[in-house]
Design goal:
Aspartate Aminotransferase, domain 1; 6-stranded antiparallel β-sheet; about 40% helix
């Protein structure tokens, strides 16, 4: 597994509040308050597992299958696979933020959203 792929995820993902590096299912991951929201996919170099609402997952996979996909294991689950070589840092940051919001405690997520809205 390429360390540079996960280094990129860490660089972008640890900008989010209360995020820490960890492991999840034996692979490098990021967690918010102990809950995993992204992890590297075992046996698939350069592929990230990202939590995502199912409706958004379906739309992204349909619109950009070169970036987003799923295996039968993830069908029907709120997670998708991301080819890190095919995604820009800006788009990866958005996917990480979305995944973080899915797993962050409500109070933390609300505070983060309020901070972002205040910056606009």
């Amino acid at each position: 597994m390429s360390d540079s792929h996960f280094d990129r995820v860490v660089k972008l993902g640890t900008m989010l509040p209360e995020t820490s590096e960890s492991t999840w299912y034996g692979t490098p991951s990021l967690k918010v308050k102990g809950k995993g929201f992204v992890r590297m996919k075992e046996k698939m170099d350069g592929v990230l597992v990202v939590t995502v609402p199912i409706g958004l997952k379906e739309a992204l996979i349909e619109a950009e299958p070169e970036k987003y996909f799923e295996t039968p294991h993830y069908a029907g689950w709120p997670a998708m696979l991301v080819r890190l070589d095919a995604i820009s840092d800006d788009e990866l940051q958005r996917r990480l933020e979305c995944a973080w919001l899915e797993k962050a405690p409500r109070k933390l997520a609300t505070g983060y959203n309020n901070m972002i809205e205040g910056e606009k």
